[in-house]
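Notes continue from the previous slide.

Worked example: a multi-chain complex. Inputs as given:
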Amino acid sequence: MTIQIDEPGLQHQRVPPWRNVTFLKWAAQVIFLAGILAVFWILGSQAGDNLEQRGISVSFDFLADPPGIALAEGIDVRPDTGGRALYTGIVNMLRVSVAGIFAATILGIIIGIARLSSNWIVNKVATVYIEIIRNIPLLVQIIAWGVIITTVPGNLELDSGPIGCALAEPGCEAWLVVSNKGASFAWFFPGDGFWQWLTFLMIGTGVSVWVYRWRMRLKEELGDETYALTWGTLTVVVFAAIGWFVHPIMGFLGYLWGWMADLFDALPVWTVQTALALLAVFFAGMWIKGFLDDRRTPAGLAKLTDDDIFRIGSAAAAGLAGVLLFFSFAGISDWILNSGRDLFSVMDSKFEFLEGGSPLALSRPSIAQPGNFPNYGPTGLTMTKLFFPVFVGVTIYTAAFIAEVVRGGILAISKGQSEAGLALGLRRNQLLRFIILPQAFRIILPPMGNQYLNLAKNTSLGIAVAYPEVVAVGQTLYNQTGATIPIVLLWMLFYVSVSLFISAIVNWYNRRVALVER
Amino acid sequence: MEPDMNPGKVVLPDDEFAPESPPLSPSMWMRENLFSNKVNVVLTFTALSIIAFAVRNMVAWIFAPNRGWEAVATNLRLLMVQSYPAGPEPAIPDQFARIWLSVGIVVVLATLSLAAWRVGSRVAATSFFKTVRTGGAVLALFAFLGPPTQDYAFLGGVDIPVVGVLFRLLGSLVTFLVEATLMTGGRLVVFAIGAAIAVAGHLASQATKARGEELSFHSLFIPAGAGALVILALWVVPIGHYFFVEGAKGFEPGTIAASTKVPWTLIALAGVVAYFLGRVVVKFLGEKLLKFVLGLGWGLALPVIVLLIIRDPDFNPERDGGGIDFLTGTDVTIWLIFGVVGSVVIGFLSLPKLGEAGRAIAGLLMIGSLAMWAFPMLMRARLIGFLFALFAIGAQTFAGDSRARARYVGLWLAMATLLVFFLGAINAPGSVEVPGKSILGGLLLTFVLALTSILLSFPIGLVMALGRTSTMPIFRVISTMYIELVRGIPFITILIFFDLILVLFLPGNSEFDSVTLAILGGTLFSAAYLAENVRGGLQAIPKGQYEAAKAMGLSTLQLTVFIILPQALRAVIPSLVGQTIAIFKDTSLVAIIGLFDFLFIADKVIPAQTIFLGIKLENIVFIAGVYWIFTFSFSRASLRLEKKVGLGER
């Protein structure tokens, strides 16, 4: 925004910088940025002095050193490096988050719909649930569940288990056991060839979408009932059934993944660096080009204001900073190469079963006594007494919020929509499927994504019941090694990545759903 | 009760104008609401069995003979204020009157506000008594539903045989029911209370029915009556505490009741008196004055209670050594320089004829105030200097005629005075001795943390929201980065960061109280969420408002302060209350970093006491109830507020 002066003689005289609003605004911003950078620099150098004085290291060496800690549960309870310990914590956190997201979604939708029920007592039960759960701090609830599971009656005993038969006998397996050691229940576990079978399932899903659309098109053309949903579901079932027996033929994918892993291994670092730098330059250039295109009129390029020049300059500077970043820190490119190779190697190892095997195997809980006290055996899906409070706590808490989101989304659809649908002769379930839910879903989705994010972050409260997720493991680690600053940085990096990942998915889906609207 | 409202009319809150539906008979109601079709029948029985299961287990748990409710009863003071000195035992002078005074101030302010904002409406006596009847019946039913348990004294002072005799007088039918279910002890008491309430409610509703809906009373009588009942209980029931002597648990009746009944009675009386005083003031002087005074009172309540009443700062710490006196010390000098001289400067800078020169001088003052950070001097002087420079910059923008100028200068003088005084109070050492490390603890700490964080985060969040919606890219990117970073990471990592790491970044051997650090973390955390709430309000403002304001010739700052923010903030009041509730719940996380808040005491301190070793779930359930009462009433109040300002009706 420049100041326009109408007197003809002054028209082309430039406004002096100290009265030029654009210049002042940019000057203020640049000074502010410089100020912030200066404050960070001062704090950083101060931290360096302080750390030296106290003899605390800020290096990331602890990631490769033996941590000297044992974890209560996870993929690696006696990790040999600090990095491995943190990785175990991350896997634990993701485990409880994903399980919690599934369970909370189902419970939340049930309660949200119950809240809208015309049945008085169901409605009241849902209301009481929501009003009680969401008004009590989650940490209090998690601690309460932690106490409850350890005081649950029915201790594990080898001779008289909760299911009647003596669990110590080799053949005795239960469906569901709850005790002060946690809960364990029967579950399907992936067996040999699971991933090859999953490939079949994914192809089947893709085909079934196509089949569904085809049947729907036919229905619109002919006006007859074409059972599109049944056809779609049957397609998936057929693919799953075929895949169950012939999944070994997907083994060829393993060679493909192995070849990709070799490729990532062979690429020199500078290729990735160059590619990334080119990408930075490309994006900056595209932004500038788009910006200039906006200013292009039939009469030629519009005169660029000071503000425009500052903006273009900033974009160019950002692109240049990207190039410098990628060339001065080869570690970034190296990391990309390594993780790409590792990913494809892991995928390679999952696809090497050429003999037929059962992709899913039912496994029922059993009891074992390795030391003095009986505990759950390796079979069955076991929620330990540490996992249980975190999982149940975040699930029940988030479900209350999801229920409100679902209820709000359905209530937001105006009554006229239902009335119009009914007037067209739709049945109740058709009304819900074709009119209400597609519209409600669009409203529900963004807040739902927010709730998933909250759930993922809230699993960090597992530290209060000693569940070894990433924060708790980090705390144990810095108590051992003193590396507080690196660990807090790693936490932040991890959680910000998770947040960005979830919000990226939600945004992507949101954009897809929103496109249908107009 | 309400002289200016139509006294005869009964105002029903929601469906004022809805046609009255004819009352259904119970069987018709059930057929319509519970058994309308096959699915509903199944759902009803499922829900009923869920309720029966939950209630049965809850009742069994609550009244189990080995429940340690006495842990909560004995440790009430610890839960509320941790180790604030109360009584002769710990060889530290009794300062508990300060706590009662603080509670009294809050209660008086609250009742005055009720009077000023005319909260409440008329409630028909019949419908109220019907609700009482239902409540009593549900209570009795819950007690009745529990499985039979052993005899158990649930309140220390209640003598079970006496209650039993009273109970038998109620009639043979009830006695039969009691014997049939072996209901004894605490369950019996609760059942008796519930049944008595139900019977009394029924009789009262029958008695008032004849008078129709004409018989009504003010709805504030309900909370007032409930409070009166609780206080009456303190006078009647000898609630006491447990102790541990020579390996055996002993009970001393009446101790807790004796130490609390007089203060609570006085506070309640003060509240009632304040309410009627407020009504008189509203009637004769108008509500505007009272609302202004109350706004000021609520604004000052938190710093006054925390800094002055609870801490009791000693402004003359070195009296004996011939040191600095408050009046002759640095504080007064700072006040004279910034308050008095500063007022003159700001008055001069706001002269309209000064124009651009005023801004230039203000800019120089800002540079000077920033330069103060480079030289060693009192932190208080730096902070006030910065605020002064901000006021100087705003002088040309906000000052018009002489009245506006006077108001602006007055505002600065008030701000400077308050800031100097409270910074002086923070700086002065507290004179209340406590056995523990921090003077704040328990529920008091929870409240102080939540309120301070939300109040301090408000200006930061506002600036961040403006930055995020700004057209200036660097401000926008910085605000966005801050907001998204903080919203992306869990609160506990922020708390750990402030608790452990912040000190490493600060010069010298800076020492911070861990409560201060937690407040700092809470402030910066809630600022990011608050910014998003305010942004929602900012984006709801139609573009025409900006254009109209620009057309009027307002500058960007004037436009923001006078046109945009008042509308935006009004639109986000409900979400701000929601944010306050969230912060109140989130303060429980400080228990993880070892602050002695409400949760920590229940979770770690009481279960470690020799006499109540391992008693944990009872404490947790109790504090969950307390948290619930506060958050639930906040959210209900917020709903009412939403309705009152007419939001959500567009």
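Summary box: Residues 158-164 of chain A have pLDDT under 50 and may be disordered. The longest helix of chain A spans residues 21-54.
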